[in-house]
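Following up on my earlier thread - several people asked me to post the actual chain instead of describing it. Fair enough. Here it is, all 191 residues.
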Amino acid sequence: MSLNKKSVIRDWAESIIIAFLLALVIRTFLVQAFKIPTGSMRMTLIEGDLILVNKFIYGAKIPFTNLRLPALKPPKRGDVIVFIYPEDKSKDFIKRLVGFPGDVVEIKGGSIYINDKPAPEAIFNQIYYYNRGQLDAPGQKMVVPKDSYFVLGDNSATSKDSRYWGFVPKNNLLGQAIIIYWPLQRIKLIK
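Reply from S.P.:
Thanks for posting it. Predicted structure:
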């Protein structure tokens, strides 16, 4: 094998390794693509939508540790978040953030109440929420525990969410859904 041929092979190998490492860093710390598998977030997200999730915004998790990078901003009520499903750590879920630690959450007459007042965010007035699940009988108020969040799917009639399986530990938070990038006719920012 000639010296020139070895140089070309080495250049290709280096390029492939650098590209792989760069992709790994981007996916781990900055942005990750996800495909929506169910209708639990209809009409915001529908089955088959491909989305990008900003992992850096809330402080990306450092792999194999319980540490996080510093957050750019804290999550806010109404954000569409991706998190590790509390009942099966091998799955990632996407829902809308409703309650923070210490909040008292109640669903009454199809509306969300936070600390006995209607949720002020406009998005919650556009969705009818059902009392479903073990944790959300009519008239029942749920207190969000320390270091946890209460989340709901936008398709409240079919979504398995905090009403069924409880709260999302803060450490399970992966990032904020920011954009639908496929299919082309659905490209938009996620609100």
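The domain at 3-189 is CATH 2.10.109.10 (Umud Fragment, subunit A). That should answer part of your original question.
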